[in-house]
């Protein structure tokens, strides 16, 4: 087979050779917890499914290929992936997180890790001097997320990598919104990439799973140890579902990005809309950076998420309740479009943190339905 395979090909073939015993074209769901040994300690590479399972191994190989990384490990959820990555740090180390980080990540560092000897600070990661100053406090990891959620700010990964490395810290990037089809952080200086595969990687709103990819052999060994020791692993069926989702990631992402770009431009012209956040808009503050950084597909693609503000919270709540094709729901990245109110839904855990989002903000996860139908749905809800 040609090496290295292109993204679309790797998504379908890496880790997915025909099943050696039956010739099955699709990796089976190895729904087993244990494996029979020929003699004590003599086995076919699998002993117990927390440690390793063939469906999960196939998935991990495919995830690594898509990331261009030497290793990828799968976890029970995106939060489990972030938790295990944080556990690889030393007690007392500081983690820097963006001031508009995913709400669950903030809650993890604020309410869980903070009580277990891992300090954290929030910082505006578009502000290099602020990041540099925060790093001076003995940081072990800069945990970036770009585009950010829900206002889709773009962080400069090369710059953050340089700052982190100068301070002896790792750069980890939550790449859930961009996916490896649009952006590969390891190529921009990151040491680890984290995903909620629940979103675009799975793509069909039918599974919960997370992963971490890295080229750092020592870090990978530590993560593999923790994966088994802690046991926050995905089951064979979810691993299989994700492998199935990955096969269409490239074509789905193109459709998400095309729909989102059309909707963002349409919203910009709408009299009821105050501000649109989408890095693909030429006047968006992150546009230039996104054009350079989100071009892994060979051309810049700006993602499937669009946020916008309307006049008031009451108006935002009413728009969220009026759409029909856009389902009112948390989460993102599925083929079906979703609408939500970050202030009261995904980002409610930021209440009282000083990092609350605007109550007039609405977030869209643009699915792959026909963009004309989606625009008609938004028009009905806005008027
Ligand atoms: C959903 C999400 C997570 C958490 O992932 P789960 O799979 O829900 O645990 C982390 N980061 C981002 C950006 C997310 O959207």
What can you tell me about this protein's structure?
With 383 residues, this protein is an alpha/beta fold. It has 2 domains: 7-246, 3-Layer(aba) Sandwich (Aspartate Aminotransferase, domain 2), CATH 3.40.640.10; 250-382, Aspartate Aminotransferase, domain 1 (Alpha-Beta Complex). It contains 13 helices and 12 strands. Strands 1-7-6-5-4-2-3 form a 7-stranded mixed sheet, with helices on both faces. Strands 8-9-12-11-10 form a 5-stranded mixed sheet. The model has no long low-confidence stretch (mean pLDDT 96). The structure holds pyridoxal-5'-phosphate (PLP). Pyridoxal-5'-phosphate is lined by residues 77-79, 102, 104-105, 145, 149, 174, 176-177, 196, 198-199, 208, 210.
Measured between the Cα atoms of the first and last residue, the distance is: 55 Å
Largest sheet: 7 strands, mixed
The ligands bound in this entry are: pyridoxal-5'-phosphate
Poorly predicted runs are: none
Task: Provide a count of the helices.
Answer: 13
Chart the SSEs and their pairings:
Layout: H1 7-13, H2 54-67, E1 71-75, H3 78-87, E2 94-98, H4 103-112, E3 119-123, H5 128-135, E4 139-145, H6 157-166, E5 170-174, H7 179-182, E6 192-196, E7 210-214, H8 217-230, H9 236-246, H10 249-269, E8 275-277, H11 287-293, E9 305-309, H12 313-322, E10 327-328, E11 338-340, E12 361-365, H13 371-382
Parallel strand pairs: 2-3, 2-4, 4-5, 5-6, 10-11
Antiparallel strand pairs: 1-7, 6-7, 8-9, 9-12, 11-12
Helix pairs in contact: 1-2, 2-9, 5-6, 12-13
Bound molecules: pyridoxal-5'-phosphate.
The site of pyridoxal-5'-phosphate has 16 residues, from helix 3 and helix 4.
């Amino acid at each position: 087979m040609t090496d290295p395979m292109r993204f679309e090909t790797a998504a379908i073939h890496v880790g997915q050779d025909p099943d050696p015993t039956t010739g099955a074209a699709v990796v089976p769901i190895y729904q087993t917890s244990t494996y029979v040994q020929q003699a004590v300690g003599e086995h076919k590479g699998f002993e117990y499914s927390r440690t390793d399972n063939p469906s999960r191994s196939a998935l991990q190989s495919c995830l690594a290929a898509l990331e261009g990384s030497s290793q990828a490990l799968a976890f029970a959820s995106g939060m489990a992936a972030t938790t295990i990555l944080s556990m690889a740090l030393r007690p007392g180390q500081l983690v820097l997180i963006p001031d508009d980080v995913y709400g669950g990540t903030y809650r993890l560092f604020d309410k869980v890790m903070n009580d277990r000897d891992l300090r954290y600070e929030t910082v505006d990661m578009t502000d290099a001097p602020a990041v540099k100053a925060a790093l001076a406090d003995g940081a072990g990891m800069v945990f970036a997320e770009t585009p950010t959620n829900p206002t889709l700010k773009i962080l400069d990964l090369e710059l953050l990598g340089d700052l982190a490395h100068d301070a002896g810290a790792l750069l980890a990037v939550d790449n859930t919104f961009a996916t490896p089809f649009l952006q590969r952080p390891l190529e921009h200086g990151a040491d680890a990439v984290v995903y909620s595969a629940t979103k675009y990687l799975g793509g069909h709103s039918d599974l919960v799973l997370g992963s971490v990819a890295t080229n750092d052999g020592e870090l990978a060994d530590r993560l593999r140890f923790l994966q088994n020791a802690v046991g926050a692993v995905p089951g064979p069926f979810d691993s299989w579902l994700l492998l199935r989702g990955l096969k269409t990631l490239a074509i789905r992402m193109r459709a998400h990005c095309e729909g989102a770009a059309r909707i963002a431009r349409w919203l910009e012209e709408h009299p009821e809309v105050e501000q649109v956040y989408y890095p693909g808009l030429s006047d968006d503050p992150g546009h230039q950076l996104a054009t350079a950084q989100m071009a892994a597909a060979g051309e810049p693609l700006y993602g499937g998420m669009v946020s916008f503000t309307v006049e008031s919270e009451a108006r935002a709540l009413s728009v969220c309740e009026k759409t029909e094709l856009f389902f009112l729901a948390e989460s993102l990245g599925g083929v079906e479009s979703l609408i939500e109110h970050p202030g009261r839904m995904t980002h409610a855990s930021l209440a009282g943190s000083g990092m609350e989002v605007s109550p007039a903000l609405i977030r869209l996860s643009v699915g792959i339905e026909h963009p004309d139908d989606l625009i008609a749905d938004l028009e009905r809800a806005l008027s």
